[in-house]
Amino acid sequence: MNEAPPSLPPRRPIRDLPDELISQIAAGEVVERPASVVRELVDNALDSGATQITVRLLAGGVRLIAVEDDGCGIPQEELPIALRRHATSKITSLSDLETVATMGFRGEALAAIGSVSEMALLSRPAHQPGAFLLDARSGELRPAARGTGTTVEVKELFFSTPARRKFLKTDATELAHCIESVRRHALARPDVGFAIWHEGKLVEQWRATFTPGDANVQDALARRLADVLGEDFVAQSVAVQHRVGPVTVTGRAGLPDAARSRADHQYCYVNGRFVRDKVLTHAARSAYEDVLHGHKQPAYALYVEIDPARVDVNVHPTKIEVRFRDSREVHQAVRHAVENALAAPRAAALSAAPAEPAAAAVGVQASQPNLGSKQPQVQAWQAQAAIKFEERGHHVADLQ
Ligand SMILES: Nc1ncnc2c1ncn2[C@@H]1O[C@H](COP(=O)(O)OP(=O)(O)OP(=O)(O)O)[C@@H](O)[C@H]1O
Ligand SMILES: [Mg+2]
């Protein structure tokens, strides 16, 4: 048969995309809504060693997101580099990536945000006599006033991509997402103070509950959990502390009676990073199998510490997903950690004498999120945590 071939569309030549468009495409993955910008900027502030982070928002973050920190700052000559795609101070090689201790490492957040907003960086490192302001769009760099640290200002998000802007919800909804984004960070970093302002009003403030020199790390986390999730969460939960092989699980697990109708108080962290992970949520859920019926959702904040070589954080640009080398070992550790914690109050009620901790468990009622950063402030907090464990015959390495 001699059928005529269907007519093909005219072929277009292969070309490199312009830089701006590459960033806008990348921004589609990283920046979904104002809360994604807040997440990236707070990540950066934490990586800079900040002890106080202030987030200011207008119109749910759509008109303005400004994140201010007292961290290490960016030298004047590096400000333009910070905006470039794939420019980072956090890794230099593939092996660094395998042991990455910072929240960021891809070197693309600022470039992505800058391509879909009007962005400005204002920064001053401690040794620099003054601050400098860089306007991302015009490239203008000029002296400005500021103490040590950095402020990143993001205005008119998605102004150049109206299709994206149409997906945004009401200001109140976007604000709620922004607050949730800061809450996730705050639960992992009781050593850092956070404040959120909206339309000139202070809407949340969580003061640092741990300062270097404090003895009680567990109390610091419990106080932060109470500040952020409410006193009830702490009153109606038990401390989790369990170690199996290379996996340590700490935090607090809500008692079955405190289960909620929504899964809104379920926080999981891997090496200090908030993650959404089916392995972890399934493991936690299965620990409640026998004590929770129907559709009730347990409340918990769980901090998994694992050798960074056993977990891949470079799965998705938002880094909210991780891939475990051995997900079964993590599943078992989390399940047992929560089961043991939930069993402890019942065992105590049955017997006046405290039950012996399980052989694999560390056996302390401590809660110790890893604060995954190389900054000096964090080292002080980690050192305190280590002291706690060493008092009981365990070592820093147990936690890392
Ligand atoms: N608040 C800040 N304080 C100090 N330095 C900062 C701050 N924000 C950004 N930087 C610097 O700018 C660089 C680029 O930031 P950006 O967020 O784009 O990339 P990253 O954090 O390295 O990686 P990722 O894309 O994974 O977030 C950082 O590596 C850091 O050196
Ligand atoms: Mg970053």
From TrEMBL:
TM annotation in the entry: none
An example GO BP is:
mismatch repair
Keywords, comma-separated and alphabetical: DNA damage, DNA repair
- Please name the PROSITE patterns in this protein's record: DNA_MISMATCH_REPAIR_1
Question: What's the protein called, per UniProt?
Answer: DNA mismatch repair protein MutL
Q: Which SMART domains match?
A: DNA_mis_repair (SM01340)
Family (UniProt): Belongs to the DNA mismatch repair MutL/HexB family.
GO MF annotations for this entry?
A: ATP binding; ATP hydrolysis activity; ATP-dependent DNA damage sensor activity; mismatched DNA binding
Every DNA mismatch repair protein S5 domain range: 225-343
Matching InterPro entries: DNA_mismatch_repair_CS (IPR014762), DNA_mismatch_S5_2-like (IPR013507), HATPase_C_sf (IPR036890), MutL/Mlh/PMS (IPR002099), MutL/Mlh/Pms-like (IPR038973), Ribosomal_Su5_D2-typ_SF (IPR020568), Ribsml_uS5_D2-typ_fold_subgr (IPR014721)
Q: Could you tell me which SUPFAM superfamilies the record lists for this protein?
A: ATPase domain of HSP90 chaperone/DNA topoisomerase II/histidine kinase (SSF55874), Ribosomal protein S5 domain 2-like (SSF54211)
| Annotated GO CC locations | mismatch repair complex
